[in-house]
Amino acid sequence: MGVGWVEWPDGPVFFALNIDTPNRMADPAKREQIARAVLQSIG
């Protein structure tokens, strides 16, 4: 699970990402890529 925030000009945006993967201990980079892609998609 990833939890955090991003500072936007209008203030912080908080997020939580919970994804089950086959090899959860080896997949943090994949979860980070997904979180970044979602945040980028909202501008």
Q: Structurally, how many domains make up the residues?
A: 1
Largest sheet: 2 strands, antiparallel
Mean pLDDT: 83
DSSP strand content: 25-35%
Count of helical regions: 1
What spatial form do the alpha-carbon principal axes imply? elongated
The termini sit apart by 22 Å
List the helices and strands and how they pair.
Blueprint: E1 2-8, E2 11-17, H1 28-41
Antiparallel strand pairs: 1-2
Labels describing this entry:
43 residues, two-stranded antiparallel ribbon, alpha+beta
Structural description of this entry:
- The structure is a single chain.
- The chain has a two-stranded antiparallel sheet.
- The chain is an alpha+beta fold and 43 residues long.
- 33% of the residues lie in helices and 33% in strands.
- β1 and β2 form a beta hairpin.
- The mean pLDDT is 83.
- The chain has one domain.
- It contains 1 helix and 2 strands; from the N terminus they run ββα.
Question: What is this structure, in a nutshell?
Answer:
This protein is of the alpha+beta class and 43 residues long.
